[in-house]
Specification:
- With about 450 residues, the protein is mainly alpha-helical.
- The chain has three domains: about 1-60, no CATH class; about 70-275 and about 375-405, Citrate Synthase, domain 1; about 275-375, Cytochrome p450-Terp, domain 2 (Orthogonal Bundle).
- Helix content is about 50%, strand content about 5%.
- It is built from 19 helices and five strands.
- It has helices at about 5, 80-85, 90-100, 105-115, 125-130, 140-150, 160-190, 200-210, 220-235, 240-250, 255-270, 275-285, 290-300, 320-335, 340-350, 355-360, 365-375, 385-405, 435-440, and strands spanning about 10-15, 20-25, 65-70, 75, 80.
- The strands form two sheets. Strands 3-4-5 form a three-stranded antiparallel sheet. Strands 1-2 form a two-stranded antiparallel ribbon.
- Strand 4 and strand 5 form a beta hairpin.
- Helix 9 runs antiparallel to helix 14, helix 10 crosses helix 18 (about 385-405) and helix 14 packs parallel to helix 17 (about 365-375).
- It is globular.
- It starts with a helix and ends in a 5-residue tail after the last helix.
- The structure holds acetyl coenzyme *A.
- One of its GO terms (molecular function) is citrate synthase activity.
- It holds the Pfam family Citrate_synt.
- Pathway: Carbohydrate metabolism; tricarboxylic acid cycle; isocitrate from oxaloacetate: step 1/2.
Amino acid sequence: MSDSDHRNSLTIIDNRTGKSYELPIENGTIRSMDLRKIKESEDDFGLLGYDPAFLNTCSCKSTITFIDGDKGILRYRGYPIEQLAEKSSFLETAYLLIKGELPDKERLAVWTYNIRHHTMTHANLTKFMDGFRYDAHPMGILVGTVGALSTFYPDAKNVGQEESRKLQVRRLIGKMPTLAAMSFRHSLGFPYVLPDNDLSYAGNFLSMMFRMTERSYKPNPVLEHALDVLFILHADHEQNCSTNAVRSVSSSMVDPYSAIAAGCAALYGPLHGGANEAVIHMLKQIGSVDKIPEFIRSVKSGEGRLMGFGHRVYKNYDPRARIIKKIAFDVFEETGRNPLLDIAIELERIALEDDYFIGRKLYPNVDFYSGLIYQAMGFPTEMFPVLFAIGRVPGWLAQWIEHVKDPEQKIARPRQIYLGEECRHYVPLDDRPRRGDDEQKFGICRL
Ligand code: ACO
């Protein structure tokens, strides 16, 4: 090995055997498969890594999204999120994420046309939607209907064919707002609104959500723009829980509708897509600005968390939160000030000056202000994760394409540490201990 190879390597001494191993370091990582060489004996399986929740494991190489959590940096394909939020549109950002470059005028026009002409859904999907109960959670409806799309497009299973992938990308980005709006209107018992392809992506979504008897629906331009920016901010966030679900499921080479349905299911969970709803509940619970010090005291004494604060990756201000806070003021000028905003602003101010939050590097995250905006726009809280899902679809799709094209990827299949019983012999039913005395005698615990 040369000197520079030595510098880019890790020497491990296995104290069980005294043997030394040299593992190459590439991109700041070692390959877990290199650990397999480290064996106690010839028939030993080899050393494995144990990493529940992937806290320190890279599952892929990616060129899509870069995050520096300490510095509060987020970039899509190298472009800072601040510039995209200010200058781009959601559909252009979706193009960037999926194709890797910003489009020229002609490409953007064709892309926009293609997405807009995939906004309708098959009439049978409406019947499928009607089968949900009136109070079904819209996110549950979304999981079901996105998955059901695979039955309408059996050609989608050709995941190795580029043309097929392109078509499914257009369909999925085009149809997400339609399914999302249908899930909302279903809960109210309102008739579904057909897509209006003369409107922008966000404008058409607002129309399908809120149009009543108007002959033509004109979205409020401030709200339309705010929603478009919110979609941009949610469009990708590298290997988070839902993206990992999409990648893991699509590693079986299943169609993208099934994989994106898995992403929606992951996003449904309160630890992922549901935190902005929790922020609204928290602000309502605080009730007024003068109750904030008492609330902060309760958080510091471990009686709950300051929702919308803290992040696994960001140990600095989440750059998306800064942009969202600015949009909130634009939206409230149109809709009237959400009374919860005053509580949020004061809560943020006090928390950012408090040693508890400073010491733990807890800053506002994307969810701190987004719920307030959605609420002011007229979205019920159950729709918050659905809005997140619409924005995240281009990111999931970009990650899906990258995954299926990556020659290093195989079907995702983690290992485990087995801590269960050794081999034991089957006991016939009549010979097994029964409930009651026998259980105590045999020390059996039933759940
Ligand atoms: N309020 C009060 N204390 C907090 C908070 C919070 N929001 N977040 C973390 N802490 C404290 C913890 O109690 C812990 O303190 P300790 O060291 O004294 O025990 C310390 O900060 C570290 O917290 P962890 O839970 O280890 O941090 P982790 O990275 O695992 O959690 C998480 C990140 C889940 C986002 C957490 O900060 C949290 O629960 N925040 C509130 C919920 C929220 O806003 N989620 C949205 C995240 S953004 C997104 O998913 C789109």
